[in-house]
Specification:
It holds the Pfam family Arf. The chain is α/β, with parallel strands linked by helices and 189 residues long. It has one domain: Rossmann fold. It has 6 helices and 6 strands. β5, α5 and β6 form a beta-alpha-beta unit. The chain starts with a helix and ends with a helix. The protein binds guanosine-5'-triphosphate and magnesium ion (MG). The site of magnesium ion has 5 residues, from α2.
Amino acid sequence: MSSLIQSLVDFLYSLIYSLPFFTPTSQTPQKTVLLGLQNSGKSTFLSPQTQHEPTLRPLSKSLTIGSRQFITFDLGGQSNLRSLWSDYVVTGVLVIFVIDVYNFSVVSEEVKEEFEKVKDTCGILAVVFNKIDLSPNEKIEDLKELLLDEEEGEDEDIGYFLTSGLKGEGVREVFEWLGERVEEGRKGE
Ligand SMILES: Nc1nc2c(ncn2[C@@H]2O[C@H](COP(=O)(O)OP(=O)(O)OP(=O)(O)O)[C@@H](O)[C@H]2O)c(=O)[nH]1
Ligand SMILES: [Mg+2]
């Protein structure tokens, strides 16, 4: 119960940063939400040393990557928990959408359905093709083709990454890209 309260407090705290009168700085923790089907590896992506039970309640964790700070929200991916996702995907939030490449062909329709909903509601989005250690020959272009509709053009607010959360491979690059996109956005304001 206390973890739920802590998560809610962290979430409200981070919401303050998305209010219009608050001018974010590079020291402002970037609110980052992890979404994706159950078992895709979200919790492991954030904490590789732990063997995780399925996430039933949102968990928050602070991360520092280089000079940038992130406050992450790891949400449950089971189908009955996905209605919570939209509460966390609010203006200014960064989203990491995690896909298990090893099982992608089996669950691709379900992944695509959830991805379409998320893509249309969020700003900066990192798509993480995860568990690449189990399927090392995968290519980003092929995986993108499986995920996206053919007629869709490139969206510059979406980055695509191959990662192994378990081995910690590619994780830092994802957060660095997100941080860079935020900074580019600030410069453009
Ligand atoms: N081989 C491999 N296994 C992974 C990787 N990431 C996660 N796993 C395994 O996949 C299983 C599910 O990982 P979780 O991190 O709990 O998945 P989740 O997306 O948080 O699942 P929910 O909380 O139910 O939404 C665990 O057994 C992990 O050890 C990875 O990069 N490589
Ligand atoms: Mg989890």
